[in-house]
Every structure is written in C-alpha cells, then in structure tokens.
Amino acid sequence: MAPDTRNVRRGSLAVGTATVLLAALAACGDSSGSDSSGSGSGGLPSTIKVGVPLDLTGSSAITGVGTGEQAGVKFAIKQINDSKLLGNSKIEGVFYDTQANKTQAVSRTIQLTTKDGVKAIVGYSLTDSFLAAAPTAQKASIPTMAVGLSGAGVTDVGDYMFRELLDFSRLFDGGDPQFLKATGGKTAAYLYGSDTVTTSGQYKHRSALLKSLGIKTVASESITSTTTDMGAQLTSIKNAHPDYLVIDVDTGQVPQVLTQVASAGIKAQVLGDNGLGSAQSLASATAAQGAQCGLFTIPWYVGSKEGGNPQFVKDWQAAHGGKQPDLFNALGHDAMLAMATAIKQAGTTDSAKVRDALLNLSSFSGALGDYKWASDRQPTYKGIDMQIQNGKAAVWTPRSTCKR
Questions:
Q1: How far is CA 348 from CA 121, 356, 378, in A?
Q2: What pLDDT, in 10s, does the model give residues 230-275?
Q3: DSSP state of 28
Q4: Regarding predicted confidence, which is higher, 227 or 38?
Q5: Close Cβ partners of 88 (under 8 Å, ≥ 6 residues apart)
Q6: Strands of 295-298's sheet, edge to edge?
Q7: Bridge-based pairing state of the strands 120-123 and 144-146
Q8: How many helices (H) and strands (E) does the chain have?
Q9: Closest residue by Cα to residue 45 from 87, 83, 82, 93
Q10: What backbone torsions phi and psi does residue 168 show, to the nearest 5 degrees?
Q11: 373: which DSSP letter?
Q12: Kind of pairing, strands 244-248 and 295-298?
C-alpha cells in the first residue's frame, strides 16, 4: 500500500528546506569576516568546539543507534561548515564513545566540560546515561541537545537541557488511542525491558494509557537488555490470547523479539515504537513477519514532505551512494543543525545567550519538519503514524488495511 502523505499528522509551520535555511542564515551577519588573530565572524571564534558523546559500542541493544546518530551529526557539521552558516567560523566536533555505560558518560562529560573547552554538547543515546551525566553539563552551564532519548526527565535536569527526540509519552498519547479505535481490540499483553529508565517507563505509561482506554491487561512479561531467549515470556503471552502485543524494548533487541514472535506463532496486533520500522528489524524476513501490520508512531519518516526533509534526504543520498537516511541520522542532523543555528542567531558562544537563542528559534526547518522548542525545551513537531505492511513501513491512517 503506497504511503498517503496527505494524511501525515505533523505540526505545520512555514515550509522550507535545510539548504535554504543554511543559505539564508549564512547570508546574515557575515560582513565582519575574519581578522588576523584568527577570529571568526562577528563575536564568534574561528573554531567552535561541540562535544558529541554517543554510544557507539558496548551493547547489542543499541546497535545502530549511536552510530546512526553520529553519522547524522557529522553530516550536519559538514553542511554547516561548507555552507558557511557561521561565516568564517567552523564547528569542530569532539567525539567520544560512551559505550552504553553510565560511568563512561559521566567521565566523558566531565572531560568535555573541564578540559576540552566545548561550548555546547550534542549527544547521548541512552536516557540512563544522560540522566547520570547531564547534571555535570548543567552545572557547567553548557547548552546540551540530547539526540535520541525517548525517556522522561531529560529536560527536568535543568534549563540548559534540550531534547531532539520527543518524550515517548507524547508519541504514544498521540498514536495509541487512534490505533485502538481503528482495530477494536479489548485485551493486551506487554513485553518490555525492565532494566532501563526508557523501556520500563514506556511500559508503565503505555499500560496505564491503554487501561484508561478500556483495554484489559492479560499478561506482562519483562526481559533485560542482555536477554536473548524470550521463549518463556512469549509462551506466556501466547497462552493469554491477547488482542494486542505491546513491545517496548531497546531498539537493538526489536529484530530478535520480532523473530521470536513470528516463530512462536503469535498473531496478536503488535503495537511498538520506532524500532519496529528500523532497517535492522525489516532486514530479516522472519522479523518482518513478526512485525506484519504492527503499528507505531514515529517522529520522522523518510518520505515526509515536511520542512527540510526532502532536501535532507536528497543531500544524504548524494553523499552516501544513494542510501536512504534513517531516523537516527535525521535526529543527529537536526540536533547539530539546531545548535549551530542558535549559535548563529546568538552571535556568540556565551552559554546563556545560546540557550536563549534555542528557546527563541521561531521557524527552525530540518529533517523532522518545521518546528521549534517549547518553554519546556521539548520540540514541537508531531508524530507520524506508521504500519508495517509486507516488510515495509508505510504511513497509516484509520482507512489503512493490512492482513496478518
């Protein structure tokens, strides 16, 4: 079924493209040029260091997340510097692998804020690691854009903390009620990760949400990020005969879960999250079978015509041999572009002024659309409802049909 982009639920501000935005901003305030002391444009230094701590190794449960985010950040840095968005000033990323480890995240954040001289941070792949490390950045008054965190509490750390990915609760609150209304189920079983703030929080929020909508819980099974055999949990779920199977586990575990769901012969309607439509999940025919007709709400879709996404996709494919970007590439790209845009508008790397500029971005245009950051420092874009149909993710509407 071809995606019907007319029915995509997104926020609507003025439409633009990432390239147009870069060019327009680069044209403003660049007349001062550089001086003999090596300064950049206006009040900006010639080199602006931005810390990029991401989980590149350390856990199969986040396979492809941190590396995808890093690729998006690097792509944005190249665009920013090549387009002279900051005039003669350039962004220099200070990259660290935080290894899916809270201790590493804290250590690297201390290094970034005390030794590396960064003026901002764009990073973090896991909410648990961020919540351990972010107080250090907040204490140092470093504007920080959390890239791919879906857990709660990110902006509660302090007024210098922003997020690129919406709190999962906002995505579920937008999509799940529509899914339930369209599919008409009455009971649900849950499979969730019990050892991370994000996945356990997703389960608590989602089970309460579905209960409030009249859905009866018939089974709740948990795994950890190191679980590889979910046979016992899935047998219990199958025997409960749920109408819905709600999956909230680490992104890297989703393909394995879906494969075992298919092997167990579970036919329940799957409700998942962004991991359901990842390239890794759909690469395996068996996993795709387990995901068939699965529903989820996602912050970004490669086919979206919103904001700067068409240009982002075009530019990404040109730079990567025709390969399409994924969600984590888009998140990394927009997080870095937003921070650079705020520095541009502030005309300085003064931390308070960059923070205020982020809050005052009125028409930021990126891969996730045309949006801004609200007073709670969460992005204002809306989610896109999606469904897995015959091995592919397609935009879903209440009129969509799918056969399991």
A1: 16, 12, 23
A2: 999 999 999 999 999 999 999 889 999 999 999 999 999 999 998 8
A3: S
A4: 227
A5: 30, 33, 34, 40, 41, 46
A6: 216-223, 187-193, 244-248, 269-271, 295-298, 384-389, 392-395
A7: parallel
A8: 13, 14
A9: 87
A10: -55, -35
A11: B
A12: unpaired
Instruction: Judge whether 224 and 252 are in contact, CB under 8 Å.
Output: no
User: Residue 336: which of 29, 48, 141 has the closest Cα?
Assistant: 48
CA 221 to chain CA centroid, Å, is 26
Amino acid 23: pLDDT: 45
Q: What is the mean pLDDT of residues 143-158?
A: 95
pLDDT band of residue 40 (cuts 50, 70, 90) is low
Q: Looking at residue 41, what is its pLDDT?
A: 60
Asked whether 160 and 141 are in contact (CB, 8 A), the reply is yes
For residue 354, give the DSSP letter: H
Q: Where does the pLDDT of residue 60 fall: very low under 50, low under 70, confident under 90, or very high at 90 and above?
A: low
CA distance 265 to 255: 16
CA–CA gap between residue 122 and residue 52 (Å, rounded): 5
* Residue 361: both structure tokens together: 């971005």
Which residues make beta-bridge pairs with 45?
A: 39
Distance (Å, whole) CA 159 – CA 347: 20
Contact of 300 with 72, CB cutoff 8 Å? no
Task: For residue 98, give every residue at least 6 positions away whose Cβ sits within 8 Å of its Cβ, in sequence order, or none.
Answer: 53, 54, 55, 56, 58, 66, 104, 105, 108, 123, 124, 125, 129, 133
Who wins on pLDDT, 234 or 4?
234
Give buried/exposed letters for 350-365 (b at 16+ CB in 10 A, else e). bbebbbebbeeeeebb
The vertex-398 CA angle with 298 and 379, nearest 5°, equals 30
- Beta partners for 47? 90
**What residues form DSSP beta bridges with 146?**
123, 163
